[in-house]
């Protein structure tokens, strides 16, 4: 009988009390993050700062490729070995498609333009990967390449605490800023 009472008390504490307390604290201290870091445009949710979205069309900066087709319920990496024939073929296909879309890519293609992220939803690209898309976007929008590069620079986030991670650009935020210029 003591074991049953202890189980009920622990169920209430751990299963109800603790989750409610942590949710309440999170909502009080970090309300935007606790709600999913949603981005609103004109009072309408456009997306989340934390999840990649697919952008089609030459006038938009494209996100990193998604192994889950940008479906958040199917978060997954490809699980393909980098030496497998399938992975090599898929990467070559992505490089060829990228060269078709972006005529002025040059000899060096940033890896994050042709590889998927571990989760399949990485919302950020390296500044180099975004700048590689500038000629295509400039041609499609009529906005000068210099103005687009300045827009990218203004949306580039540096390393966390100056030492962790790499500089990155959130593609959703960048495209929302681009939309204001079009």
UniProtKB/TrEMBL annotation:
Protein family according to the UniProt entry: Belongs to the KdpC family.
Name used for this protein in its record: Potassium-transporting ATPase KdpC subunit
Function of the molecule: Part of the high-affinity ATP-driven potassium transport (or Kdp) system, which catalyzes the hydrolysis of ATP coupled with the electrogenic transport of potassium into the cytoplasm. This subunit acts as a catalytic chaperone that increases the ATP-binding affinity of the ATP-hydrolyzing subunit KdpB by the formation of a transient KdpB/KdpC/ATP ternary complex.
Origin species: Gottfriedia luciferensis
NCBIfam families associated with the record: kdpC, PRK00315.1
Subunit organization: The system is composed of three essential subunits: KdpA, KdpB and KdpC.
InterPro entries (UniProt xref): KdpC
Membrane topology term: Single-pass membrane protein
Alphabetical UniProt keywords: ATP-binding, Cell membrane, Ion transport, Membrane, Nucleotide-binding, Potassium, Potassium transport, Transmembrane, Transmembrane helix, Transport
Keyword Translocase in record: no
Subcellular location: Cell membrane
């Amino acid at each position: 009988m003591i074991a049953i009472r202890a189980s009920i008390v622990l169920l209430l504490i751990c299963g109800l009390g603790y989750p409610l307390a942590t949710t309440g604290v999170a909502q009080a201290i970090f309300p935007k993050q606790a709600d999913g870091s949603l981005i609103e445009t004109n009072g309408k949710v456009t997306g989340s700062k934390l999840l990649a979205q697919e952008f089609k069309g030459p006038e938009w900066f494209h996100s990193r490729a998604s192994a889950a087709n940008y479906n958040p319920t199917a978060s997954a990496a490809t699980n393909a070995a980098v030496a497998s024939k399938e992975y090599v073929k898929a990467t070559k296909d992505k490089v060829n498609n990228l060269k078709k879309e972006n005529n002025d890519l040059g000899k060096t293609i940033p890896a994050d333009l042709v590889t998927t992220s571990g989760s399949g939803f990485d919302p950020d690209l390296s500044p180099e990967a975004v700048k590689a898309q500038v000629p295509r976007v400039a041609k499609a929008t009529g906005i000068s390449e210099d103005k687009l590069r300045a827009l990218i620079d203004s949306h580039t986030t540096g390393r966390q605490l100056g030492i962790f991670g790499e500089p990155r650009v959130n593609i959703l935020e960048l495209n929302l800023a681009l939309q204001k210029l079009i």
